[in-house]
Amino acid sequence: MQQRNKAKDVGFERSRMMRFLLAIVLIIFSVQIWADEGQAGYELVLSKAPINRLDMESIKRGAKFFATTCMSCHTLVYLRYNKLAQEAGITYDKMPINVTTWPNGIKPPDLSLEASIRGVDWIYTYLHSFYQDSSRPTGMNNLLVHNTGMSGILAAYQGDQALVKDPMANADFRGQVEWYDLVQLTRQGTMTPEQFDTTTADVVNFLSYAAEPYRAEQEHLGWWVIGFLVVLFFMMYALKREYWKDVKKRKAE
Ligand code: HEC
Predict the structure, then answer these.
(1) Is ligand 1 within 6 A of the CB of residue 68?
(2) Cα 108 to averaged position of ligand 1 atoms, centre (Å)
(3) Contact 51/205 with Cβ under 8 angstroms?
(4) What is the pLDDT of residues 169-178, one digit of tens each?
(5) Hey, which of 20, 113, 202, 205 would disulfide with 61, CB 3.0 to 4.6 Å?
(6) How far is CA 119 from CA 54, 113, 122, 234, 247, in A?
(7) Does any ligand 1 atom lie closer than 6 A to the CB of residue 150?
(8) Quick one: average pLDDT of 6-29?
(9) Which residues lie closer than 8 Å to 124 by C-beta, 6 or more apart?
């Protein structure tokens, strides 16, 4: 009798535990859905950065563009001993290390690890989504970083963009939009949209390289390791069959 009661108690405890866990899971899910809703009724999804980490030419082009366009403000301190970076003109003495006075008091962050922190798709989308906003001291705002401190240096290439009047009109059935659904080009810059896409993809590819210079090599090596494990699996399987042959034979005798 005693025993049975105990068993019942344990069952009761367990079902209470399960209900508690279920409640937590449901709460997490509902918070998630609530967070995804966004205030304006649409959700900005990141655009996929069209990069190929094995394409060294693209990385080099990105490094050159960084040296000439971004390095007047941003540093890349972890890359100061990197050969590829040095060849593109990214050297420690040319980085704005000692600059202390920045426009509006906002210091541009170091971008050495930016691709690891934000992700490549985030940077690609950020670089595309500047738009004109006369209420800002820089005259520029950004869809991803509201009231960003970065000025519109990319507008020279991309052109001027303005917010569209009715972003919901461009949203898909889930209410999701990409940056180009929210802004429109009002003046073309020195690059066509395709050239701008390629250039920003190159810079993003370079920043991805900057964050993890050995990543391509590691991924390459990873395939060899997996290949080795597959070969090893078949060899081990053959060996197992060989051993068990004797065991089975002896059992049959
Ligand atoms: C005129 C100076 C200036 C130039 C040139 C410039 N930036 Fe910036 N950038 C800034 C400032 C300032 C911020 C900080 C924005 C903030 O925190 O609101 C920033 C922020 C960023 C961020 C976001 C950092 C984060 O995680 O919030 C990225 C990515 C970035 N810049 C990339 C670039 C790239 C790539 C280039 C070259 C194409 C470039 N920037 C050129 C000033 C500049």
Answers:
(1) no
(2) 6
(3) yes
(4) 888 888 899 9
(5) 202
(6) 17, 10, 5, 38, 55
(7) yes
(8) 77
(9) 46, 47, 48, 49, 51, 200, 201, 204
